[in-house]
Amino acid sequence: MIIDAHAHVLAPEVFYAYRAQLIGHRGYHQDGPGYSDDELAAAAAANVRIMDSVGTDVQFLSPRPFQQMHSAKPDLIVHRWLGANNDVIAKTVALYPDRFAGVAGLPLCSGAPVESCFDELSRAVQDLGFVGVSLNPDPYEGTGSTPTLGDEFWYPLWEKLVEYDVPALIHSAGCFNGREIYSDHFITEESIAILSLLRSRTFLDFPDLKLIIGHGGGSVPYQIGRWQAARQAPGLGNDALEERFEVSLRRLWFDTCLYTQASLAYLFETVGPDRCLFGTEKPGSGSSIDPNTGRTFDDLRPVIEGIPALSEKDRSLIFEENARQVFSRWRGPAR
Length: 335
Known about the structure:
The protein is of the alpha/beta class. It has twelve helices and eight strands. Strands 1-2-3-4-5-6-7-8 form an eight-stranded parallel sheet.
């Protein structure tokens, strides 16, 4: 079975008009998204066709990251918008329960305490049956200073995730600081997330916490020598985790949204196939055609299958077994 653990929902185009309405009236009106059942069914069917075209059996769906607008004010806009996103995902899953599972967007707003997203977290997991969450580590979207993920600011959320036994996909969202576009911001925030977590007591205090770092771990796996050296250096190696950096790195999980075989092979070599989950974001920013192969960049199954160093067991871990372990609430079909 091929499980794509990093995918984003295909919603009817009219759904995104609701986002504009929320911004326009600042959450004042109680109007709903306004898409029809037929429009939602058509969007879901289109996603299934895309999956079938590349041999993907299941996708775990979360909201489109750059659309989440965590920094919008008032906070009510964010709560209504992400609640509506989670509803779209839940309805899509209900249409194809053997092909999709839900990964909730959390309405954590810039300047708000982390507990402010707990009502939606509870609704998504306990009422809608979602199997994970997507977590933006920078709700200010480049315009402020959010505590890094190694800060105790996040501890109440870690407690909830462990209690519910759901993983978090660390995935940045928009960026409005003028220095980088949102896709650049993803890599910056994922790198900061790893380094701040592995310098902190987070995994000592929450050993059962399951965090997946998107896009192959940002820059960290490819700059690993810098962090290995820093941890071993006299006077610099003061991280809370008193172990080699490469050991600490394996406390995290990583997806495969990298799009080149050399990068994927290095990721597997660095953190191990047993810590990597197949993820593509398809359809998304990798859906353009690779002129070297004639396939889309995000058609990653043949890319991974073509890495000689991977055994059949390695490929099974990446494509299916690791996802079943990390998303332990998922009760999908066996193949």
